[in-house]
C-alpha cells in the first residue's frame, strides 16, 4: 500500500521576513530503550566532502541541514514566522533597524568547554565577514557591505550594527549559516572548518560531531549537558544518544534503506519513489519557500543578450507537462522568481506566460533568427541559435529528465540547447568568469532578500549578469524597509520585472520530502522542511 503523504504548505501570512538555504537526510538502525538508541538518517550529501562542511562558508543547503545538530543560533523562527528566544533571551531593534541588541543566556557552553558569550558572537560574525573567510551566502545574510560590526557591551550583551536599515537580520540570525563555533576553534583551526570533523566542527548544539568518514557517514553523539534549545522540547538533551548520518547520493538507495529498516529517516525522496513506499512509512512533504528551481539566462555572454530571444526561450518550453509528468503532481509549476509559500509572492503572474510555440516562433522571427540549417536549427548571420547549459554534478535522474524535455521542446522551434554536465571544479572554472549561456539551481529562503543576491548588479549569485539601476534601487529599498506591506510591494515590482525581462526562468517549486520509519516519534521540521530532533525518540 502507498505511504501516507502529508503535504504541508507554509502559509504566506504566517511567514515573516527572512533569507536563507536548505536540504538532505539519514541511515542504519539499532534497537534498545529510548535514551540510548541510535537514529540513522540517510541523506544525499554528495558534495559535503568537497569543502562544504562549514555552513558559514558553503552555499549548499545540505551543509546547514546536517550541521544544525552542532550549531545553535541567537533566535528561533517559529512556524508562524515569529521569532522566539534561543541563545538570546531577548533582543531590541532600533527604530530604524540599524542596531540589534541581544541579551544572551549565561549558562551555555561549547562542547569543548569554552563559554558562549558576547565575545563568541563577535568572533563568529567578524569571521564570516572577513574577506579571507571567502563566505558568500552567510556574509550576505549578515548584511555584507551593510555590516558595521559587532560590539561587546558586556559579557552577555552584544550589539550588531549596520550602516543602513537591514530588515532581514533576525531571520538570518535564526539560521545555521549564522550559527556559532567555539572561539578556540576559530583561533586554532578555522582553516579546517571547510573539511570539518571531530574536534573541528565544535558548537553548542544538542549533538557533538564525533566521527566523520567523507562520502560515507557523519556520526553525532548526544551533548548530555544540552539545556538551552528553542522551546520546551529544547530545554533538555536529546532523547536518543547517536545520530548517524549516512551519505547516500542515490535516491533508490535511500528509499531502499528506509524500507529495509536499515535507516530510520530518509531525506530528499524523489516524488516518483514515494508511491512505492510501504504504508508503515510516513512521508512528509514541505514546500520550500524561496526561489524555485530555475534556469538562469546569461545576457552578457551570447544570444541571450536579446530580450526577445529570452522571452522566446521561456515560451518555448512546455513546463506544465514536463513538471507534472516528471514530478507526479507533487511539485507545482512555478510562475515567479518567488515560490508560492514565500512572503511577497505575486499570484497575479500565474498563467501569464504559458507554453506557446507560435508566440515563441514569432519572437525569434522578430529577433532575426529566420533561416534554418539542415538540422532545423535557426540561423542568423551564419550562426546557429545554440546555447550552452552548464550543470553541476551529480545530477538527479528527475532533473536529467527535465533537461531532456526542455531540449526537446526548444528544438521544435529551432533553438538548440547543448548541455554540459560538469564536476564541481570544471563547473566553477566556467561559472566564475560567466563563460556559459545558462545554468540552473533552486534556492530556499524565507525572506525575499535572496533576490538581491541573484538580480542585483553586485549580487554574488547573479548568474544572469543582470545590471539594471532601476532594479538595483528596488532591491536596495526592499532590504532597507521594515514595513512588510511596503516590502511586499517592492518585491512585486521585482517579480514583474523578471516576468518581462526574463533573466530567470522559474520551472517548479520543490518540496522537502522525508520518509520516516515507524521507530521515530516526535519529529518536527523547520520552515525549510529540515528535520528537527529536539523532541524525537526512537524505539
UniProtKB/TrEMBL annotation:
SUPFAM superfamilies: Periplasmic binding protein-like II (SSF53850). One of its GO terms (cellular component) is periplasmic space. The keyword Signal applies. Residues 1-27 form the signal peptide. Residues 83-451 form the Solute-binding protein family domain. GO terms for molecular function: peptide transmembrane transporter activity. Gene3D superfamilies: Dipeptide-binding Protein, Domain 3 (3.10.105.10), Periplasmic binding protein-like II (3.40.190.10). One of its GO terms (biological process) is peptide transport. This is Peptide/nickel transport system substrate-binding protein. It comes from Microbacterium natoriense.
